[in-house]
Specification:
The structure holds two protein chains of two kinds. Chain A has helices at residues 8-33, 41-66, 74-90, 96-120, 125-144, 155-162, 170-188, 190-200, 202-207, 212-238, 250-261, 271-290, 295-317, and strands at residues 164-165, 168-169. Chain A is an all-alpha fold. Chain B has helices at residues 44-52, 74-79, 97-105, 117-130, 146-159, 176-191, 203-209, 232-240, 294-301, 324-329, 339-343, 350-354, 373-386, 403-416, 433-448, 460-466, 489-496; strands at residues 6-15, 18-28, 33-37, 59-64, 67-69, 82-85, 164-168, 195-199, 212-217, 220-226, 258-267, 271-279, 283-287, 309-314, 317-319, 332-335, 421-425, 452-456, 469-474, 477-483. In chain B, strands 6-7-8-3-9-10 form a six-stranded mixed β-sheet, with helices on both faces. Chain B has a six-stranded mixed β-sheet with strand order 16-17-18-13-19-20, sandwiched between helices. Chain B has a four-stranded antiparallel β-sheet with strand order 2-1-4-5, with helices on one face. The radius of gyration of chain B is 24 Å and the shape is globular. The chains are: A mainly alpha, B alpha/beta.
Chain lengths: 321, 503
């Protein structure tokens, strides 16, 4: 077959290490411009803490993206899960641990519903999760009556989000454990291998005996679980339940994942890449804020990065393979 | 002597780590059918890519009508009269035939500048008539038979005033009678003074249609032969570099117990009430034209599509096969016709593809789903050795392998999954002569090791060479069963085309 292929080596190197190099350059520039504030242990901890919620959500939904689908409902689901954990413990009288577990379960369950809609009804994941995200917005408002919950929350809840362990925020440990777990699943288990196979060629995967529906549903469940984990963490960081707490993160989640797809591996989503993608986003925001940049500048830059990352990864996705 | 319309001299092309072309020459005259032969990876496709303006050349000259040219891009190639018909045909399947033609000859306009559909249709019909295309141009191109699609695609090339028509494996997916139709058409094109460059692996067809043949080996032109003065054996020898004709002795295998029985399996009109049985150690050929239901039958047995009715027995027991996963659990394996589209995940490595159906057996600990990469490497290296897959190693991405080696990876996948019943759909389609011989060897080994093989092929000589029995399908039904002495190319082709009355 004749296909227009771009000359590989130089561009591949640019793409594989370009994002990592970009991260390094950014750190260097900010360190030079703000030597007193940026390159400090305190700021490093802040960056990790700021990136925790985003990492949980983005690495979770990376599993869906490996499979070739999208989950647009992660952020609304995160808001809902955070609201639910706070609401159950503050108003429902449910013990804190149980309400967190319930909220996580609801996240996974919503993911399973997403996966079933996509598999059983053969809808595009884009449309299906766009629809469920709207439903989730409605349910969140129904549950919270549109107001935030800031009273009656057990103090331990905020401890989780704000507490420190060995000088590092507890959230960072949760984020690291979650990401490490997903990395192991994606790279060292049969499940991960099959996700990549389905993402690479669904028909060949099916004819190799892979049950696509099961794997897709499981991937969406992981995405939902990650969203719930992120949403609960965010609520505990904020110390309150807000019905739209995580709604604005969707662009960041996708930008991080696409940045990841052009990092280290050609045009493939992977967990390590997504983590690096999150770091790029958070370091950039952190540095720009220190420089006193206006918030709208951040929006513009984020949008441009997303386009650049998708374009760069897209070149590779359509490569003759 | 007449000046050649297309000349290529000393063409070179290097890719990182490999030399694709190393001084290739070619000279094609007006009104001749010129075959371009060579094994996969010999450099044929690179040569064509350069002519098409898809890949830039490193060195050498391309001379068109005495003028040296550099083909900048595909559009430029067309403007200079180089017309390509690739295996994918590049038709618009949802558009009717006349509109596919109009895209090349242009739409007619009304005085207002809008499209004049009546006139557009008439103009397309005139072009089609000139070339004796007798099928309905109002039918969407996707609904035409594969051969008719080729005729239409070639017609598009001619309509755009091609001086050189380059056909890449035109008979790859069509059989018997349709090939004759295509050849008649090519002869007509040739009579119009167009030069035809014909790329094919099927040497008997080259013998029939081509005037001369240029053979490329390892990126270099090893010679140009006048076909009339050569035998098929000469061509094989030139292509492979040594005398290595595929042996055509029929296998005499010993047949054992029944491994697969299919009863009255039906799906729509594609497969209608097919019943047959297959024994361990037996190779049963399945002949038929494209569209006769062979591929569909294999997919039904394998659970890739849902049957309307019918039963499948594996090893004498009724098998419930609702999905490929069920079929694999029963020990079935399907090697699909579309190797890249259905057989491989081309972005994944050789080893990941080989272990895809058997990955659960390569666990580090029996009850946990973690893979053992050492065992995986070991298993795939064994397959690579056993089937002599040519690749840089288990970590190479399969998309970059040649067709024959990709096919071996697909076979390796099922060998390492310990399948016992192999459903092979055109296993040697589009692979070179040497790889074909190797794949034939693998198929024979499968049978002699006790597996049952159901072999679909459009190449009658392949069926004769390999099969103990041959079933012939026509319009979704099995119309004949040939065994022993009755298995001849002639008989297979006759039944395929409906030439003999089936009992």
């Amino acid at each position: 077959m004749i296909r227009v292929t771009r000359s590989a080596p130089r561009e591949a190197a640019w793409a594989r290490y370009g994002t990592v190099a970009g991260l390094g350059v950014m750190c260097l520039v900010f360190s030079i411009l703000r030597p007193d504030n940026f390159p400090t242990f305190k700021n490093a901890v802040t960056i990790l803490r700021q990136g925790s919620v985003l990492t949980m959500m983005a690495t979770g939904t990376t599993m869906v993206m490996i499979l070739g689908d999208f989950d647009l409902s992660v952020c609304n689901l995160a808001s809902f899960a955070g609201m639910l954990a706070v609401g159950l413990s503050a108003r429902g009288g449910v013990p804190l641990a149980l309400s967190v577990i319930l909220a996580l379960s609801v996240g996974a369950a919503v993911g399973i519903v997403n996966g079933l809609i996509v598999s059983v009804l053969s809808l595009s994941s884009f449309i299906a999760t766009l629809a469920t995200s709207s439903v989730l917005v409605g349910i969140t408002f129904l549950y919270s009556r549109g107001t935030q919950i800031s009273t009656g929350i057990p103090p331990e809840f905020a401890m989780f989000g704000r507490g420190y362990f060995l000088g590092v925020p507890g959230l960072v440990f949760v984020m690291a454990a979650w990401s490490l777990g997903l990395w192991v699943v994606a790279t060292h288990t049969e499940f991960g291998r099959r996700l990549y196979a389905v993402g690479g060629n669904p028909e060949a995967a099916r004819l190799s005996g892979i049950r696509i529906g099961v794997h897709r549903t499981a991937a969406f469940a992981v995405s939902g679980l990650g969203a719930a984990l992120g949403g609960i963490s965010l609520a505990s960081m904020l110390g309150l339940g807000h019905p739209q707490a995580a709604d604005g993160l969707l662009l960041d989640v996708f930008t991080a994942a696409f940045l990841g797809a052009v990092t280290l591996r050609e045009g493939q989503f992977h967990v390590v890449g997504t983590v690096i993608g999150v770091l790029i986003m958070v370091v950039m925001l952190n540095g720009l804020t220190m420089m006193g940049a206006e918030f709208y500048l951040q929006n513009i830059i984020k949008g441009v990065i997303l386009i650049a990352a998708v374009a760069a990864s897209g070149v590779r996705a359509h490569r003759g393979g | 002597m007449e000046r050649p319309v297309l000349e290529v001299r000393g063409l070179t092309k290097h890719f990182p780590g490999q030399t694709a072309l190393d001084g290739a020459d070619l000279s094609v005259n007006r009104g001749e059918v010129h075959a371009l032969l060579g094994r996969n990876g010999a450099g044929k496709s690179t040569l064509i890519r350069i002519l098409a303006g898809v890949t830039p050349k490193d060195g050498g000259r391309v001379i068109l009508d005495g003028r040296e040219v550099t083909v900048r891009d595909p559009l430029h190639a067309r403007q200079m009269g180089l017309s390509f018909v690739h295996q994918e045909l590049n038709l618009f399947p949802s558009l009717p035939g006349y509109e596919n033609l109009a895209l090349d000859i242009g739409y007619s306009r009304t005085p207002l500048g809008l499209i004049d559909w009546c006139e557009t249709r008439r103009r397309a019909r005139r072009v089609a008539d000139r070339m004796d295309l007798e099928f309905d141009l109002d039918v969407p191109a996707g609904k035409l038979s594969i051969a008719e699609q080729w005729l239409l695609a070639i017609c598009r090339g001619i309509a755009a005033d091609a001086r050189v028509l380059i056909l890449d494996e035109p008979t790859c997916s069509i059989g018997g009678k349709e090939v004759a139709r295509l050849f008649a058409f090519i002869r007509r094109v040739k009579a119009e003074g167009v030069a035809v460059l014909y790329v094919s692996h099927r040497l008997n067809e080259v013998m029939e249609i081509a005037d001369r043949a240029t053979i490329i080996r390892d990126g270099r032109t090893v010679g140009t032969l006048a076909v009339a003065g050569s035998s098929e054996r000469d061509l094989v020898r030139a292509v492979v570099g040594r005398d290595r004709c595929a042996d055509t002795a029929t296998v005499t295998g010993e047949s054992g117990r029944e491994c697969l029985r299919v009863c009255d399996i039906t799906r729509g009109t594609a497969v209608r009430g097919v019943s047959f049985s297959l024994r361990y150690g037996e190779i049963v050929g399945l002949a038929g034209l494209v569209g006769s239901g062979r591929t569909e039958l294999l997919r039904l047995i394998f659970g890739a599509d849902k049957a309307d009715r019918g039963e499948v027995y594996v090893d004498g027991r009724p098998a419930v096969i609702r999905s490929p996963a069920n079929a694999i659990a029963e020990g079935l394996a399907l090697v699909p016709e579309e190797r890249r589209g259905q057989g491989l995940v081309t972005r994944m490595t050789v080893s990941a593809n080989i272990t895809l159906p058997s990955v659960a057996r390569l666990r580090r600990w029996p009850f946990l789903p973690f893979m053992d990469s050492a065992r995986e490497r070991e298993a795939s290296e064994r397959s690579i050795r056993d089937l002599s897959i040519k690749c840089a190693g288990p970590g190479q991405v399969t998309g970059h392998l040649s067709g024959g080696n990709q096919q071996k990876v697909v076979l390796a996948k099922w060998l390492s999954a310990d399948a016992r019943v192999f459903l092979l759909d055109e296993p040697t389609k589009g692979v070179d002569v040497a790889a074909k011989t190797e794949i034939h060897g693998i198929v024979r080994r499968l049978a002699s090791a006790g597996s049952g093989v159901l072999l679909v092929s459009s190449d009658a000589s392949e069926l004769v060479a390999l099969s103990h029995r041959v079933l012939v399908m026509r319009e979704g039904e099995i119309v004949a069963e040939l065994a022993g002495e009755a298995v001849t190319e002639r008989a297979i082709l006759d039944y395929c085309c409906g030439g003999r009355n089936s009992g």
